[in-house]
Amino acid sequence: MIKKFDSFDEYQKAYDKSVADPEGFWAEKASGFNWKKKWDKVLEWNFDEPKVEWFKGGKLNITENCLDRHLATRGDQVAFIWEPNDPSEANKSLTYKELHAEVCRFANVLKKNGVKKGDRVCLYMPMIPELAIAVLACARLGAVHSVVFAGFSASALSDRINDAKAKVVLTSDGAYRGNKNIPVKAVVDEAVKTASCVEKVIVAKRTGENVTMKDGLDVWWHEETKGISAECEAESMDSEDMLFILYTSGSTGQPKGVVHTTGGYMVYAEYSFRNVFQIGDGDVYWCTADIGWITGHTYLVYAPLLAGTTSVIFEGVPTFPDAGRFWAGIQKHKVTHFYTAPTAIRSLMASGLDFVKPYDLSSLKVLGSVGEPINEEAWHWYNDNIGNKNCPIVDTWWQTETGGILISPLAGITPLKPTCATLPLPGVQPVLVDSEGNELKGNDVEGNLCMKYPWPSIIRTLYGDHERCRQTYFSTYKGLYFTGDGCKRDHDGYYRILGRVDDVINVSGHRMGTAEVENAINEHSAVIESAVVGYPHDIKGQGIYAYVILEDFSKTEDVLRKEILDVVTKIIGPIAKPDKIQFVKGLPKTRSGKIMRRILRKVAEGDVSNLGDTSTLLDPSVVDDIKGGALVPLKV
Ligand code: PRX
Predict the structure, then answer these.
(1) Which are the contacts of 621, defined by CB distance < 8 A and separation ≥ 6?
(2) Are 561 and 580 contacting, i.e. CB atoms less than 8 angstroms apart?
(3) Most buried by CB count within 10 Å: which residue of 337, 448, 515, 580?
(4) Of 497, 502, 505, 507, best ligand 1 pocket probe by most atoms within 8 Å of the beta carbon
(5) Distance separating alpha carbons of residues 455 and 231, to the nearest angstrom
(6) Is residue 394 within 8 Å of 276, Cβ to Cβ?
(7) What is this structure's pTM?
(8) Could you say which architecture CATH assigns to the domain 8-317+396-487?
(9) CATH number for the domain whose boundaries are 508-628
(10) What DSSP designation does 391 have?
């Protein structure tokens, strides 16, 4: 087990050591794991290709470290408590021993269905224990999992299945989400019609609704597991063998398959988890993220198991049956560590304290925040009403590409400052640069956030497109990994994340490429062109504002708006639906045809007083139309 830093002094010494001797620092962190063969070299890297290899030559299986190594000491300890969508349904729990058996059993099922080391398996499932079991079963065999959030549309799912060339898809009949019943299997049926790489679909039973089972393609989870052995030897993986692909949004339309590998990811997951949350024996941890996002991968499945923690998997939503659901869950399971997103906090804050007061939250020791900047008001509400001013809040900054938390307070150790991600973890070397890539030294500076040295869970490539990986992250500033975030280092040297500086927006903590949403809107037959920007939204952090040019005015504005929302839902999913749609005559384009998004952002923010220099626009008059909210004349 990785030892925690337990004072600020120790943190500072560790930080200095990690910079002076990174390889020595990480070799020590990695030494507590079960390696089938020790590594030959701790690190080889260059950010030009880029090529980063950690613990090269080492052999291991991450599931042996998540499960097998705990069996002797904590086999009967609960690994996962499952809290179903409907609180009146019984909880389920799995001890480490039981989870180990289920993972092995399902790994054997995957084998029986033709899955081998290196094959890609796509998981499109609700938050049921089978999802975590399936993730680990893939890792047990050395198959690469690609989990797709079960709110994405059939078309988005099909794109991701095809990009990864997944051989098998895992799903469920349906899903419960609040008072909704979502036909998950039907979405998969639609998606696999255009994904000829798929040979098998394994379906877990959750809602019991009627589904179509196609002969030769679809099989039931519960039937496949009957009579199957609960023993499965863990495949020996090279440290740099692929562990998973996770799709995320970028500034262009096509989603990017971020690739993480085995050894470095494992070491960084446990290291960051134990240190940031200061988790110990007997603690109960609840991360509310869906396993379809990186937070669910690292801090719901892998890190808590690596650290031997008991954690909660929650199927539902924070507002069902009412806005007290999280707080009821904390009381019920005596949760000590609670990790959620600012969006959830803001929406629960808006529901009022009557939903908080009935519950005993005294078990809590540490609160966490992730996914977007947390505003001052939400920070204080969380601190005062949930933490009772007694629980450190760890504002954890990281990304799908970083694999783990890079900048965050260590609970109870780092002096806090509301809304600040504070300081880098030892082993993480942030730099701020200006637009030319010059490093901004010292404090009280603001610039683009980059990393100048690799950490073990850094992105290795984009699946099937290494050049895109190089261009996106390693070419903007030579020799640096560019995060895409703006950031301030204040007079104390603390980091405050300011938000994305590229064409990516962060809606309710979910990353969305503006181009992705535009492409979807443009699929509507009446639309010529569109431009999408983010704007400040009280609950979601950022909302989606779409400017749309129409060519067909035969329907009313309201009908068109609704149809556009339906198209976006069909192509991406409900999370990408614009909050506002403004029909315009033209978009502010420069003579070279580039949309001046700065202007669109200002108008969307409601700040039209100073739009800056518009002289390079091809047709400056479009700005007045947009500013005035002028609508195109509608032929009714
Ligand atoms: O803009 C930053 C924001 O979320 C982006 C990463 O999104 P994603 O890959 O989906 O991962 C989210 C969960 C790790 C970042 O580029 N972000 C994430 N955490 C924070 C944050 N912004 C401010 N403060 C944070 N704590």
Answers:
(1) none
(2) no
(3) 337
(4) 497
(5) 34
(6) yes
(7) 0.96
(8) 3-Layer(aba) Sandwich (3.40)
(9) 3.30.300.30
(10) S
